[in-house]
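Subgroup meeting minutes
Present: P.N., E.W., G.H.
Scribe: E.W.

1. P.N. recapped why we're keeping a running log of single-chain structure predictions: easier to compare across weeks, and new members can see raw inputs and outputs side by side.
2. G.H. added today's entry (359 aa).
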Amino acid sequence: MIEATLRLQRPGFTLDVVLAFPALGVTALVGPSGCGKTTVLRALAGLERASGRVAVGGDIWQDDATRRFAPTHQRPLGYVIQEAALFPHLDVRGNLDYGRKRSALESNRIALDDVIELLGIGHLQARRTATLSGGERQRVAIARALATGPRLLLMDEPLAALDAERKAEILPYLERLHRELALPVVYVTHAMDEVARLADHLVLMRDGRIEAAGPLVELMTRTDLRLSRQDDAGVVLEAQVVEHDLPHGMTRVGFNGTRLWVGEAAAPPGARVRAHVLARDVSVTRQRPRETSILNVLPVVLESIQRDHATALLQLRVDSGEGAQPWTLLARITSRSVDALELKPGDALHAQIKGVALM
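Output recorded in log:
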């Protein structure tokens, strides 16, 4: 586990958080501007002197009780910010070598070669950083951070400075790192599409405090959190490719006993994929629809209704049968439809899923 108890007082702002999350995978810190996300990262790195305790695995980086405070250069971490901040007088290889020299482990030379391959920057080694695109610069910055052999990677809105095209270019590389490197990452972002694609664990912050924390798939289904009130509210499914329907450009994925049709995926049967189902793409009917163009229709039970004037968010339980764990689906419909169908918790319904996006 990575554990941190951090307290910091500034004029008009107080940070008071207790964090505990797995030392594996991606933990996303999400919240409005000014809520303290970057301050948490800087405190974990030792760049901000908050009071409290920071422990990464068995290593204590800070403990006020024993007057222990490891300075930043003694904490085995990598730090990536919005701007790549590469050394302009060095080529790409020179920047990576600088990162490698900060590591005490000779074995990281081999690991660096793997990172170069994973990030697709082998052909950039002799290039000056000024000639790189924004996406290329950020990939080099990530590689340099990993070259130090960190035990923890901190990323502060690494894609915020990129346009949509460059962001789409770099996200697949981040997914590859997520899949293939056993390295914990703390990832600050405002973008829920990045959270849905990359995060395993989610920490919601507001006004310097933790609003909620837990596995991504659990928090995204909670209707009591502000996530559910956003336009891109929905659920994330860790699924598996079952089959392809190549003539129709479709792929079938399986999740917890449920089968869903999605757009054709470039992944073989058995491959793990992540799917995102937006609440606005789900509707409900009392009777199973016939002769419908919607391919994904599931029997569900209505668990709860959260109204917000003109719209309502439905929490639906999907039970795929014996041996399968029930799971939660969200649907956003009009408040008028709730009244017209006379919906109430406990109703047996059918959910129609118009779109399932593979992340």
